[in-house]
Amino acid sequence: MKEFEYFLFENFDADEESQNPNNPRNFLGKETDAIISLIAQKPANTCTYSHCCAESNTCLVKKLISGGILRLDGTILNFDCPVFLRDDAVVLYKAIAEKAVPLVNMLESKIAEIRACCSQIHNDFSIEQNLYHILCGMVFDGYFFDYLNAKGVLITSRLHPSGLDYLNIIYEKCSELQALSNGLLCSYNRLKNDKCSLQSFGDANGERFDFYRFFRLAERKDIPSKFKNAKAVLYENYGGLDKDALLSDVVSLIQTGRCVPSARKLLEQFGYMQNGTICVPIYTPEHQRYITEIEDIVERSIGDAMSRTLIDLSSSIDITSVKHKVNQLEIANELYHIVFGLVNEELVSREIVAAPQQKPGEGRYFKCIELQETSCKDEISSV
Predict the structure, then answer these.
(1) Quick check: helix, strand or coil at residue 20?
(2) What number of other Cβ atoms are within 10 A of residue 363's Cβ?
């Protein structure tokens, strides 16, 4: 039996829906591996519903259909979301890697303009560090998504019968796909509301020690030892997983210099403060004009080229998802993650942006805090 990693591009409040049985986080996992394996081992359009149910949990098969993971075409079961198997790895890497370098070459011609814009953000961090968060994270994993979505190149939303809005992405667990699924700089973790976001951006090659991961693990009552102290502080002072109260204290600290001691303690534990001082970049609504200008430069320099790349790849590349006739725009969403992940790696390699250090067991990432007047884009994260 194959094993899989499940990722979710969620457009719902992960905290509010943590106990919802229709939340894919509550039914994707080890039990679904057998069903996905059964279909993966057969050519597209050959696995019958009756055979799958005879070999598996019928109720779970129905759950996977209603959850947008599987699609019933008459009596045949196919994948209904992007699924990447070991056999896809070579094709994926070859097709996408050769696209990334030309895109960076085009973007590099605008780097002086981008740096000049970024230099207007005064938060005591280098241009390279700020560009890591702004260019690699906020633009490529945020605003540029919206641009591509508006152009009809990909989609970032899918409303399911449950009323939940999300996209599923599934990767077979194997070394061949590891570098594309977990190894690239294309993953946001955000604990956020409409005023503040405690976030980190990097690869997914490990279990980050950050607030978002802590809250998701706490919801499952699966707390590793390294999070135990944080749980004790949170439950003792906030009465549980009170995200809004914690973020309100963070906003107070940034705006007034004052907040309750428990918030300071948690920020210290998770590496957002050091010796009583916030030690990560802070981005405020006043910085938004410069971030928007950088996004505009990116759109003008590589917008059309990226669009053509994704349209070509999602329609013609010889991979499992295309064979199963998964929605081309959903395939393009995940292929875009791989493309911009490789672009980000090239930006790091050329020292255009700062390079996050590898943290044993956690992967590579940098943290920051973002204040905003409206809610920011949801993140893609592992189930």
Answers:
(1) coil
(2) 20
- Distances from the Cα of 58 to the Cα of 31, 35, 61, 155, 172, angstroms: 12, 10, 5, 30, 22
| pTM of the predicted protein model | 0.88
If one counts every other C-beta atom within 10 angstroms of the C-beta of residue 274, the result is 11
Report the DSSP pairing between strands 363-371 and 282-283. Answer: parallel
What tens digit of pLDDT does each residue of 162-185 get?
999 999 999 999 999 988 888 999
CA 356 to chain centre: 17
Triad 123, 128, 132: Cα angle to 5° = 90
Segment 57-74, tens digit of pLDDT: 999 999 999 999 999 999
* Angstrom distance (rounded) from CA 137 to CA 257: 27
Q: How far apart are CA 114 and CA 298, in angstroms?
A: 9
d(CA 247, CA 255): 12
Q: Cα separation of 288 and 371, whole Å?
A: 10
Q: Are 167 and 328 in contact (CB under 8 A)?
A: no
Q: How many CA atoms within 13 Å lie on the side-chain side of 357?
A: 2
Give the residues across from 72 on adjacent strands.
77
Those residues with Cβ within 8 angstroms of residue 67's Cβ, 6 or more apart along the chain or in another chain = 22, 24, 27, 28, 160, 162, 168
Angle between helices 89-108 and 328-349 in degrees, nearest 10: 60
- The residue type of 131 is L
